Amino acid sequence: MAKNKNTKKKAKKSNIRKLNDWLHLWLGLGSGIIVFIVSITGCIYAFEQEIKDAMEPWRFVKDQKKDFVPPSQLIDTAKIYMPDIKPSGLTYSNREGAAAVGFNERINGKRHFTAVFLNPYTGEFIKKQKLIGGDEFNFFRFIIDGHRALWLPYDIGRPIVGIATLVFLVLLITGLIMWWPKNWKKSNRDKSFKIKWKAKFKRVNYDLHNVVGFYSLLLAMVIAITGLVWSFKWFENGLYYLTSGGQEKPEHSHPHSDVSKAELVLNDSISALDKAWYLTRKQEMNAGGFYMSPTLHHEDDAIEIIAYQDHGSFYNRNEYFYDRYTLKRYRVKGDEYKNAALADKISMLNYDIHIGAVFGFAGKLLAFFISLICASLPVTGFLVWWNKGRKMKP
């Protein structure tokens, strides 16, 4: 009787393993080309900033050992080159980087985005560059469009990428189950942890899929999870729920200005945006960059200025909201990274973790290699399947 129980238990485990292997095979074959595209474009995009820095030297200015000019001066100059269009964003870089005023517009139903680069110390024009739309080929726009939407319309491509990324997460889990040694004797450990470089190609390919896949597993999961945050709202909310201990993720909202105080600025020669800039600058003299929305579309909109503490990353930031009429600062939940709750910090970290920037250049290098491995897994996995049935000689 005991023998029959053990036999049934063993058969049950065998069936579960067969199902796991079946899922890994067919989900991998079905999503392989998408995972490859998303991963290989992610490799390249990790170094977008470094490549642009090398290829576009005009994006740098000499540190003039004085403070930056106010936003109004940059906007007035930028409008000369983009007349009749309201600016959508204004960026100050670090002390050696050009400032930029961005302009969003729609032409024949398509989005166009142009940046006007300026010297932040003098307000002088440097260059006008069309980053989205236009006839000139933009390499990194091409890369990010492939990474996010497979070069399809975004409302079609983004869900496909999201589903493929979710499938890839399942593949990592089923792959770990397949990798797990039946027992931990030395010969099995060697197969699971070492690549036999002197073996035949089929065996080396199998080891590259099996062993390298295992070593990259955790970091590949991190990249996939951070990518899924942008793909599905339910995933983003679920991650926040787990990391906050059961709290709902608040909707992104800005404070509102007190419209009843509008008469306070009727005859003021200095714009509210400039005043808000000066107030923020006093608090953030050592910030690595700033971003603000210079155009307020509604009478109760508040002025928003984001101060990034570290040049080259976005997570460590302080957000300032000001009443456009009284310049009263409004505080909101999670407006300072250092004082934010764990779930809010994780949300702020998401982009920088995804591209590795949270650990500086070394982190980007690591993200590059992990993405490269992720791109290789569909290729080596396909070859394993193609060679199935052929004996792998040691």
Please give a structural write-up:
By secondary structure, this protein is α+β, with helices and mostly antiparallel strands. It has 2 domains: 2-47 and 164-247 and 358-386, no CATH class; 62-120 and 253-332, no CATH class. It is built from 12 helices and 8 strands. It has an 8-stranded antiparallel sheet, covered by helices on one side. A hairpin with a 6-residue loop joins β3 (110-118) and β4. The longest helix has 44 residues, at 2-45.
The secondary-structure class comes to: alpha+beta
Per the principal axes of the C-alpha atoms, what is the gross shape? elongated
The Cα radius of gyration reads 26 Å
- Provide the residue-averaged pLDDT: 91
SSE topology string: HHHEEEEHHHHHHHEEEEHH
Question: What is the count of DSSP helices, taking H or I runs of 4+ residues?
Answer: 12
